[in-house]
Amino acid sequence: MDGAAFTTLERANAQDVDRAVAAARRAFDDGRWSRAAPAERKRVLHRIADIIEERALELTVLGVRDNGTEFNMALKAEAGSAAGTFRYYAEAVDKIYGEVAPTAEDVLGLVHREPVGVVGAIVPWNFPLMIGAWKLAPALATGNSVVLKPAETASLSLLKLAEYCMEAGLPDGVLNVVTGQGSVAGEALALSMDVDVLVFTGSGATGRRLLEYSARSNLKRVYLELGGKSPNVVFADAPDLEKAAAVSAMGIFRNSGQVCVAGSRLLVERSIHDDFVAALSRHAGALRVGDPLDLGSQVGAINSLDQLEGNLGFVADATAQGAEIALGGGRILESTGGYYMEPTVLTGVAPDNRVFREEVFGPVLAVTAFDGDEEAIALANATDYGLAAGVWTGNLGRAHRMVRGIRAGIVHVNTYGGSDNTVPLGGVKQSGNGHDKSLHAIDKYLDLKTAWIQL
């Protein structure tokens, strides 16, 4: 990647968004999709997955050029994940049942599950296709219409996905994609009086604004995934410290740290601190950073110059507050014109340091030593976020205590990263509310309606 523009996009205004929402509303109200038989919706979603798989290479290259994720990771995490997500919810379509309430003999109480109507979805630039599928597939499976707003710097794969959906037989108006600035198109979507549910993955500042827009408009339900500052806790009794070092390095440096669940805070038991940091730095230093379309690259590009400068600012602030650079710390490959940064390891990071508390969203690892379980839990929870965490220990009792003690939506034990559609992803505290993935995600896109029938 050379930092040069290679295409342009339409910059939607508020009127464009209104037209997209109106199209979604018409499609929902006339029943072309919302009242389609579950078997028909299932067939279309499976066909979407088929097309994604058939054209995975095209879709992946398009996305990599857009956002800089290393190709090998993008092929699996973007196209591969999106196809799997559409298949998962395709299979769920005809397995969503209502309920019969335990009422008196002369009354029949029925609980119906109905689609909410028009869903607004705003997705980020780091994994647009994967996260877009997390929103689109369950919303479409349950019969809703969707207006999707991709990130300004990563829209192309989702525009292509919309073409695939039409080809697969999704009726006109059911999926609408509007590109443009969040401050214009995203705001218009959030303020719309005709959007029933808004789902969002991105920054906390934007999430707060979306809640305000809901209050100013129609009190639409808003579900937020707002990132994290995830602790990765390594105890001296971990079953394989060398493996823990290698996996922990990838847990922060894959996709240049531009991952919401990245293990960006490494908490290491003091007795092994120096040796473990040395091992992790050795693994991180061996990673090949470069052109994300080069199959030999293990770490790709930073998404934008603004993001790169922000990452470097965190490093400067950390060292000014007493942290030391054990590895990296600077921009590299500047002669290419692209935005690349060394995997960076900072040691001696105190809990009051900004890099300990705030999400960098870049290849910057903050390392802090601890003594004992209680301090580990206290440090792990010493942040406003609660999305993910990791624990490395050979003690089963300790593992359970850490899972219970750390406030996070997902806690990995003796691994970092990895899950599938069978389990939910969501956070606590300022990492947001609601869940993507699993059958639990469907709840966001359904309303409950009670029928109370006198017999």
Automatic annotation (TrEMBL):
SUPFAM superfamilies per UniProt: ALDH-like (SSF53720)
Residue ranges annotated for the Aldehyde dehydrogenase domain, each copy included: 3-450
Active site feature: 225
Coiled-coil residues: none
Keywords: Oxidoreductase
An example molecular function term from Gene Ontology annotations: aldehyde dehydrogenase [NAD(P)+] activity
InterPro entries: Ald_DH/histidinol_DH, Ald_DH_C, Ald_DH_CS_CYS, Ald_DH_CS_GLU, Ald_DH_N, Aldehyde_DH_dom
Pfam families the UniProt entry points to: Aldedh
Source organism, top-level taxon: Bacteria
Similarity section: Belongs to the aldehyde dehydrogenase family.
Record's protein name: Aldehyde dehydrogenase family protein
